[in-house]
Structure formats: structure tokens, C-alpha cells
Amino acid sequence: MVLFGAAAYPWLKAVHVIAVISWMAGMLYLPRLFIYHCDARPGSEMSETFKVMERRLLRIIINPAMIVTWVIGLWLAWQGGYFTAGWFHAKLALVLGLSGVHGFFSASVRRFGEDRNTISARHWRMWNEAPTVLMIGIVILVIVKPF
Q1: Contact call for residues 20 and 131 (beta carbons, < 8 A)
Q2: Crossing angle of helices 45-56 and 86-113, rounded to 10°
Q3: What pLDDT band is residue 2 in, cutting at 50, 70 and 90?
């Protein structure tokens, strides 16, 4: 723990957990907004309101939280010597999956913003579960370290 000193590790770990919680909150809320947005007529006041909500949620909360999660998470893994641990490889794969879902949601914000969404509300309800499933796997791997 040379970089920042040993005292910084728990503080950065706390910031990492806060960023993860913020990222997950946004990732759970955004597809819910998409579900409601599907019911709004394109060009309507409600549709325009959803566009603003989705864009702000992504830009102000979800994107910065993901960046902080990744930057501090990689630093913590390096400092903790976790890059050789099997559980960490599995966790990293799930976090990459969550980042892929994030990218899909980001592209969807753009499509909704251009009134080009073609995905049904029912389909968005299924996508709403993806971040939860990934989060469960990540938390189990971090806490239990099964291998």
C-alpha cells in the first residue's frame, strides 16, 4: 500500500462502495424509466420529460459512478493483490458484463432521445433484471470468495 499510504485503503474502499451503490441505483432505475417512456407518445410533454430524466440520470449519476467504481476498484485490486485470485477473475467478468449492460442502456438513452426506440415495455421489464442478477453474483464473489 505504497501509493496513497495504508491509511487511504479503507477510505478508497468506502468511496468504491458508495460509487457501486450509486451505479447500481441508476442501473436499476433507468430501465424502469424506459418502461414508462414506452407508454408516452413520441413528441408529447411526457416523452420529453422522460428524455430529460434519462439523460440526466445517465450523465450525472450513472456514468460518473461507473468511472469511479472502475478506477478505484482496479486500484484496490492492485493494492490487495487480487489479480491472481480466481474469484476476482469471475467478479471482473461480471463487472465487464455490467459495463456492457451500461453501454446498451446508454445507447438506448440516445435512441429514446431520438424517438427511435423499438424495444417494448415488456422487453424492458426483462432487461430491468440484468443488473440485479449481475450484482448478486458480484457481491457473492466479493464476500464469499468461493475460489
Answers
A1: no
A2: 150
A3: low
SS3 state at 99: helix
Report the range of poorest mean pLDDT among 1-10, 44-53, 131-140: 1-10
Q: How many CB atoms lie within 10 A of CB 141?
A: 22
Burial class (CB in 10 A: 0-12, 13-18, 19+), 112: buried
Label residue 3 left, alpha or beta by phi (over 0 means left) and psi (-120 to 50 means alpha).
Answer: beta
Comparing C-alpha atoms, which of 29, 35, 102 is closest to residue 70? Answer: 102
Cell for 86? 480466481
Structural contact between residues 102 and 134, judged by C-beta atoms closer than 8 angstroms: no
Residue 3 lies inside a defined structural domain of this protein: no
Q: Show the domain range for 112.
A: 8-144
Four-CA torsion 15, 139, 69, 76, nearest 10 degrees:
70
The pTM for the full model equals: 0.94
Q: How many domains does the chain have?
A: 1
CA dist., res. 14 & res. 11, Å (int): 5
